[in-house]
Amino acid sequence: MAEFLSLHDAVARYVDDGATVAMEGFTHLIPFAAGHEVVRQKKRDLTLIRMTPDLIYDQLIGAGCAKKVIFSWGGNPGVGSLHRLRDAVEKGWPHKIEILEHSHAAMACAFEAGAAGLPLAVLRGYVGSELPNVNDQIKFIECPFTGERLAAVPSVRPDVSIVHAQKADRKGNVLVEGIVGVQKEAVLAARHSIVTVEEIVDDLTTQPDYHPNTCIIPGWAISAVVVAVKGAYPSYTHGYYDRDNRFYKEWDVIARDRDTFTAWLDANVYNASSSAEGDA
Amino acid sequence: MTDYTSGEMMTVTAARALENGMTCFVGIGLPSEAANLARLTHAPDVVLIYESGTLQTKPEVLPLSIGDGELCESALTTVAVPEMFRYWLQGGKVNVGFLGTAQIDRFANLNTTLIGDYHDPKVRLPGGGGAPEIATNAGEVFITLKHSKRAFVKDVDFVTTLGFGRDGKGRDGVPNIGKGPTRVITDLCVMKPDPETKELTVVSLHPGVSRDDVIEATGWDIRFAKQLESTAMPEAHELDILRELKARTDRKHAGA
């Protein structure tokens, strides 16, 4: 049953040094407030999983939280590079990180397999790609029925998954809508899960926009629910606020330089409290 | 005689490659611009799918990112990302994958991973994203990018995404695989793979472009088709619609 916790307490309880963490959200609903709290609590040696590392992992990598990053597309969407990711990979700053890269199809399948409790995902993938040469977690198996050669990757089973969503009700049930990415899969694949939300309502099933196929993650499948107003900013929450495309462009300048980045992190993360990040 | 830029020539030519009724899995950037121009001109019923799960989307402005809210709000429906890749792409529902790239070689292999050695990269690029499976599971693949010696290399540093493999035979005998790249559209010309060797060959030069211009901008000894065509110029209405689309897009993103 989901417990209602503060952002500080949820991160302190469920994100341990050395943990495998998936903070998901496909361009939409990226849990930035929670990511900043992980930075503030100086968590170290994390294995960070995300299809698109985006600015959130660029910040965690630059802040020194990451040991390893597992991803499938590591750019600044619509803008260019993730400079902190690149600086870590190309120059080892602030320290060397290990990377393991997949394709989107494989990672999406791996999250789904994790939610399904399977050890691996099977897909018709990586044909002719050289990614299997540099990622030993990509194997090929033979279909026992047709003999077709198919790709296999281990399922994603994080210690903790963190996602953001529109709203929760008093029982901790969570509504997620719009571009739903792998949000539900990430929560169900993980041992523990933290869901940050824009607001709490009394009962999701009596909301005017509720319908039988509404995407709801039941409260009993979630470890902690946290209110974080604008918790996905500068990404967006469908129905609440838009993506701040201008900030995504500005990030290119901020993150390009180590000192500018460090100053930004000091001003906007270390010296901001978790309550300033919308934690209620 | 209408004035237009080489970039507009590229987008209009890429848009014309899409036919009405096709289902197209769209990459962000130039492919997205071309695919939406097609939808707003000769192919109103082209079905556009983006990897964020937005199915049959009709954005009013071009998305900055693959997951812009605009794509979801204007879609027929939005599905989860695993469903998008498993049912819609791998399930064989996509006719055309429309891709961009950082590097492409003579066998149309694409590199979006890195320049240099994998373990000591000179430049780290974003990585594969959806492309490796789009290129093999879509019925065929269109590629569009600007022509330059840096982009058009004899052999890519890394095959992120299969064209026809390093020897041109990468798809031979592979079951359940699409035709692969059938055309590459640049700001100078249109290329198609040779039916036998699969090496990219120029089939059409854009107006005002010479063979030497293409040779200069290509990192291998580029071949030209025996019957070299001249690409049709953009029509005034195509340019009007493209310019309106880009102006709308700029206004929206500047105000965001």
From TrEMBL, chain A:
<dbReference type="InterPro" id="IPR037171">
    <property type="entry name" value="NagB/RpiA_transferase-like"/>
</dbReference>
<dbReference type="GO" id="GO:0008410">
    <property type="term" value="F:CoA-transferase activity"/>
</dbReference>
<dbReference type="InterPro" id="IPR004165">
    <property type="entry name" value="CoA_trans_fam_I"/>
</dbReference>
<keyword id="KW-0808">Transferase</keyword>
<protein>
    <submittedName>
        <fullName>CoA transferase subunit A</fullName>
    </submittedName>
</protein>
<dbReference type="Pfam" id="PF01144">
    <property type="entry name" value="CoA_trans"/>
</dbReference>
